[in-house]
Design brief:
The protein has 343 residues and is mainly alpha-helical. It has helices at 2-9, 15-26, 32-74, 77-80, 82-107, 111-125, 130-145, 156-160, 168-182, 190-201, 207-218, 227-258, 260-267, 270-298, 302-317, 323-341.
């Protein structure tokens, strides 16, 4: 949609420039669609234009998710619509499992990357921290591909993030920045990062609540990463939602606004390609490990298992614009009907 409107209809850049810009943001952290909006806004209206374009992209989803989060907590959506969430969670399990399959196809371009993904999966299940897993995978793949004497990419900042104990607002800010700075290849890579920080480490919400947030984001006209607003709200109310959302999207504002030219140079650096390839392979392993937890929590009986399998098959074969919305809502409706009749 961005390419059609900004390139084909408005003619702001050439198709070749668009492809190269997209490639830059696909190998860097952050939601690339949001970064492209900021990039085009900056082209048309300078830094103010970039800010407004980015806000225009994220604001509708933020408002909708914030409203649902408030209703979820204060109106007891999870209790009033428990039958609906039964099916929605099964659909979420299928969504995340499908992401693992698609990412593996996209990122496992060599046997070594597949091995790194499997090792990352096992290490995560064994309790290894995700930042260490990503950094080690990146360095190992760089070391395998690098020429003798090549400098090692600096990974110290990634290892140090989150080492400081802060009050709640600071913790939410740090978790949000982790997601914004270490999310590669699409919004689904934010799932394991937020799960480890918000559910496993800080215990701001339960696994079921985390799944409910993912399910709600799946039916909104917004990028999936907006479920971070839900996580922030359950962690710290309105201020928590604002802090988490700002932290997650801040890098996606900053990179295209201030560092675009340098990022192009980074994208052309083959040493960084090798490092980032290793990181993205490990991300597939992280998502796979999270999928195990999600399936365990969402699939509670035979019928929910059948719903998850059906959703997975449908989403694998159907890639239309409304596919996710239709499948998620369909699973919710079928699950509710089953709960109210024979389960």
């Amino acid at each position: 949609m961005i390419g059609r409107e900004c390139v084909d209809e408005e003619g702001w850049v050439t198709r070749e420039t668009f492809r190269r810009t997209l490639a830059v943001y696909q190998i860097l952290p952050g939601p690339e669609a949001h970064e492209l909006c900021v990039y085009f806004g900056r082209i048309r209206g300078g830094r103010r234009g970039g800010l407004l374009a980015g806000l225009g992209f994220m604001a509708p989803g933020f408002v909708l998710m914030l409203a649902l989060s408030i209703l979820y907590v204060h109106a007891g959506l999870d209790e009033r619509f428990a039958e609906l969430f039964y099916g929605l969670q099964a659909a979420v399990a299928a969504l995340v499992a499908l992401a693992v399959v698609r990412f593996a196809r996209r990122f496992f371009t060599s046997p070594l990357l597949a091995v790194l993904g499997v090792v990352a999966f096992a290490a995560t299940l064994a309790g290894a921290g995700f930042l260490a897993v990503l950094a080690v995978a990146g360095v190992l793949h760089w070391a395998w591909r690098a020429r003798p004497g090549s400098p090692v990419p600096s990974v110290a900042p990634w290892l140090l993030v989150g080492a400081v104990s802060l009050p709640l607002a600071g913790d939410i800010l740090v978790e949000g920045l982790k997601v914004g700075l270490v999310t590669f290849g699409g919004a689904y890579t934010s799932v394991p990062l937020l799960q480890e920080g918000a559910v496993d480490h800080h215990h701001w919400l339960t696994q079921d609540q985390f799944l409910d947030g993912l399910a709600l984001s799946g039916v909104l006209p917004a990028p999936l990463i907006i479920f971070s607003t839900f996580v922030g709200y359950l962690a710290g109310g309105l201020s928590g939602a604002l802090i988490m959302t700002v932290a997650v999207f801040a890098p996606a504002f900053f990179f295209p606004t201030f560092l675009h030219d340098r990022l192009v140079a980074v994208a052309d650096d083959t040493r960084m390609h090798a490092f980032l390839d290793g990181v993205t392979a490990a991300v597939v392993g992280l998502i796979a490990a999270v999928t195990v937890d999600i399936v365990d929590a969402a699939v509670t009986d035979v019928f929910s298992a059948l719903l998850a399998i059906a959703a997975f098959v449908l989403l694998l074969r159907w890639e239309g614009k409304l596919a996710i919305l239709a499948v998620v809502l369909g699973c919710g409706a079928l699950g509710a009907a089953a709960q109210l009749t024979f389960l």
